[in-house]
Amino acid sequence: MKLVSKIILLLGALSVVVKFSLAVDCEKTPKNNELRLKKDMLCTYDKSVRPNGGSKNATIVKVKMVVKSYDYVEYNNHINVFVWMVMAWTDDHFKWDPREYGNLKTFYEMSDQIWMPDLSLYNGEIQENSCETTNCVISSTGSVICVPPCKYSGHCAGSFTRWPYDRQNCTLNFGAWINTGEEINFVPAKNSVETTDSLLNHEWKLVSISMKKHDGSYACCPNQTFPSLRYNFILERHASIFTVYLLIPTIVLFYRDSTAIIGILALNTIIVRILMGLECDVPHWLSSPVDMVKDSAAGKFVVDPSKIKMEKMEEGAEDDTAILVEPKANDHKNTTKWNFVASLIDRLVLII
Length: 352
Hints:
Blueprint: H1 2-22, H2 33-42, E1 59-73, E2 78-95, E3 106-110, E4 119-121, E5 130-131, E6 135-139, E7 141-146, E8 149-157, E9 167-176, E10 184-194, E11 204-214, E12 217-218, E13 221-225, E14 228-237, H3 240-257, H4 259-276, H5 284-295, H6 297-303, H7 306-321, H8 330-351
Helix pairs in contact: 4-8
């Protein structure tokens, strides 16, 4: 344990040394073109000041959401999304002539060292929403592009009426936490939502994502606006597993315990009893199919499997005993046929 503590302490000290070694020293003039560029750009820079803050023009921030993964939590109707929030704006402070810095047209700076738009989720859990610090690309034209990885958790209007074939509608509402629309204007970038590299979710299918900007005009503040970007997620449950393990057994149990089945069985019993007591001739349209089924192996097995072996054993003795046995009465033959029909119906009902 002592060795582990020493290693952690050493790594912490090393990270501090590296951080200070990479920091811009505003007192010295570095010979390295990139360090000289950073010195000129950052030593007189205040990250708390909004770009073009002295003018009446709002800072236009283009926003694009790249969805990497998502999950829906049913017990509290929340959607959790992990996204890359691509944000781009122009800062006149970061403009320079590349020829003065060895033809350098871009440099990188950590997002916590420059001004960042306060894009916040209005309808989410504050403690669950966070964006990590990342490198931003700063160009000689004043263009700043940052792509922080963020995790957001927002409320959904959950509905389980059609479970397990339900769809959930979730909305994430983003906007500036402090600034008005006259100070920071969030606008959707071209192709404002991207899901091509999103990880598959085995429980929920992402049907669609749509984005719409709301101007945020309210009666309380006629001279100010509070615009927001609303991302609407439509999720559909993968219901195949529920169909196999829940719906099919439910249907089987329903038919097994249904009152209708009891009625069918009772009706079958009555019909079988009536048929077994009939002594009249079997109709010709029924007699031929009955004889065909009766003589087949399948018919003998369904009605009485023991008859297959018994009849084979009796085939050889039939000729010898034919003279001794009196011919069966016609009514007995009819009764035998009706008994076979009754037995066949009874077996078919049992199978069904």
